[in-house]
Design goal:
Blueprint lengths: L4 E3 L7 E6 L4 E7 L7 H19 L3 E10 L11 H17 L5 H4 L2 E7 L4 E8 L4 E3 L24 E4 L8 E7 L2 E2 L2 E2 L5 H22 L12 E8 L5 H11 L5 E6 L9 E8 L1
Parallel strand pairs: 4-5, 12-13
Antiparallel strand pairs: 1-2, 2-3, 3-6, 4-6, 7-8, 8-9, 9-14, 10-11, 12-14
Length: 278
């Protein structure tokens, strides 16, 4: 999709890389050894990472984020784990970007956030010349409207973002990390098969919502529009069942990636992100 060349500026407390191509840019910021930071420092580092991305955007617009968070469930203070601290840092950055949280519904891009075994915080941002369109799922509460159950400051991401580029003029739907969540609640906590069913339904609803937003006919099965999926799983022994279910439900896949990761909610067994055609 993007033909990229890279340049790598660096700072004392972070490393950043910008890869630019015909259809957009991929900006990567890494905060080295951030797993050693206390809550206040990690929150500030997250804000710094996002503000560094903003400084690299130029006249482009963020349409997709990937967040890789070390020790994502580590307890950081009396009421927050590391993911909640990350969310606070991202929230502060977006308040600065967009003026206030009231603007989040118009501006925030889709995203994924998972844990990893390394020590660095790594944030990737895909940016394009034209802004994308945020897509929400009517079965779910918008992330930035979550209650304090999920932290003093909420996550900030759209469920999906639609984009139009020279390569894909009809449009693509960039789907953020999607799981077995209804409203703001994780559901089917003890059943992989039911979590998959709920996740698939949410993935279908996002394509339907994107078509409606883009004024395109709803003329084919939503899951048949998916071309690329990335699956994050919690338990290795679940992988065969996950692959069987995905390969049965998504008939038009061109790319399928499977990654072990700690998910943003410890009770979830699987999370799926992807790209669908409009």
């Amino acid at each position: 999709m993007f033909r990229l060349t890279t340049a790598k500026p660096s700072g004392r407390n972070l490393d950043s890389e910008v890869a630019r191509g015909d259809d957009g840019s991929l900006i990567t910021v890494r905060i080295p050894d951030s797993a050693t930071l206390n809550a206040r420092a990690f929150e500030r580092a997250t804000t710094d990472a996002y503000n560094t991305i903003k400084s690299q955007l130029g006249d482009q617009h963020p349409v997709r984020f990937w967040n890789h968070i070390p020790a994502i469930h580590a307890v950081m203070d009396c009421e927050r784990d590391r993911y909640m601290v990350f969310n606070a840092g991202r929230f502060r950055a977006f308040e600065s970007w967009y003026g206030s949280s009231a603007a989040f519904s118009r501006h925030v891009a889709t995203a994924s956030g998972v844990g990893h075994a390394g020590r660095d915080l790594v944030v990737h941002c895909l940016a394009t010349a034209q802004p994308g369109t945020a897509i929400e799922n009517s079965r779910q509460i918008a992330s930035y409207e979550y209650s304090r159950r999920y932290g003093p400051l909420p996550p900030c991401f759209a469920r999906a973002t639609t984009i139009h580029t020279r390569t894909y003029p009809r449009g693509l739907v960039l789907i953020g990390g999607t799981a077995s969540i209804r409203g703001e609640d994780s559901i089917h906590l003890d059943s992989l098969s039911l979590q998959l069913d709920e996740t698939f339904e949410n993935l279908a609803r996002l394509v339907t919502a994107a078509r409606k937003s883009d004024h395109q006919p709803d003329d084919s099965a939503p899951l048949a529009q998916y071309r690329c999926l990335r699956i994050y799983y919690r338990h290795q022994h679940d992988v065969p069942a996950i692959l069987d279910a995905v390969q049965s439900a998504f008939p038009s896949l061109q790319s399928l990636e499977v990654i072990h990761a700690e998910l943003c909610r410890a009770e979830l067994l699987v999370e799926i992100e992807g790209i669908a055609q409009l």
